[in-house]
Design a protein that fits this description.
heterodimer, A: 146 residues, alpha+beta, Aldehyde Oxidoreductase, domain 3, four-stranded mixed beta sheet, 30% helix, 44% strand, B: alpha+beta, Ubiquitin-like (UB roll), five-stranded mixed beta sheet, 3 helices, globular
Chain lengths: 146, 88
């Protein structure tokens, strides 16, 4: 199990290498990637803020929950913080398992749980404004940059 | 009245509104996290303006609103989270 909260760019290779096993015939990788638009608006970049100690703890709990519910071999989760440009990876989940069904299901569930419980927040910055995204697509605290 | 120390941390929109990452406070012994939030709202109108769509954490664990604080606790007011890449 490998858990990371980091301001550095996420390279999937070390995480894939971490979960690979000779007995695992499947490795499922999910990358959350910064998109250039949101609700019809052109996004310039994103900023992620985290409560790092708690976020790491909650990511570990999600990973432990996944391990207890699916017969997987290993799991690694990483979330980026700070400013991210369009196309950069914000979230990485990689799961290895003997067979592909468990790897897909566990990876999918992990991504959903992370969005529910891990104290990390996304700010969208667009031309002439910005806002913190709160919960499932709600927008609050729209501010004009100085 | 006996007091104790508490640290309050602010993230994301709350960090931006409060203009600070954390506050070190002397608070009444036995205060709950919701009471602490209410007291801070009285001192910091910006925090009150934010509203109460928040969860509470103490020492990096979610707690209910009536959770009583202990000396040295680290409290955070947690806005609805939005990690990952896609909000939908």
């Amino acid at each position: 199990m490998l858990i990371r909260i980091t301001p550095d760019a996420l390279d999937p290779q070390p995480f894939i290498a971490h979960v690979r096993r000779d007995e695992a015939g499947a490795v499922a990788l999910f990358l959350g990637v910064v998109r250039n638009n949101s609700q019809g608006r052109r996004v310039l970049h994103l900023e992620y803020d985290a409560y790092p100690e708690m976020a790491e703890k909650k990511l570990r709990e999600v990973a432990e929950e996944i391990v207890s519910r699916w017969p997987i071999t290993d799991i690694a989760i990483a979330h980026r913080t700070g400013r991210l440009e369009i196309g950069e990876t914000s979230l990485l989940v990689v799961v290895s398992s003997p067979h592909r069904q468990e790897a897909f299901a566990a990876c999918h569930h992990a991504v959903n749980r992370i969005k529910e419980v891990v104290p990390i927040w996304k700010k969208e910055v667009w031309q002439g404004g910005e806002s913190w995204v709160e919960g499932e697509g709600e927008r609050q605290a729209t501010l004009q940059p100085e | 009245m006996a007091t104790m120390k508490a640290k309050v941390k602010f993230f994301a929109a709350l960090h931006q509104m409060m203009g600070t990452r954390e506050l070190d406070l002397e608070v009444a012994e036995g205060l709950t996290v919701a009471e602490l939030h209410r007291d801070l709202c009285a001192r910091f109108p910006r925090l009150a303006d934010y509203g109460d769509n928040l969860l509470f954490s103490v020492n990096a664990e979610y707690v209910p609103a009536d959770h009583p604080l202990r000396d040295g606790d680290e409290v955070a007011f947690i806005p609805p989270v939005s990690g990952g890449a896609d909000a939908h």
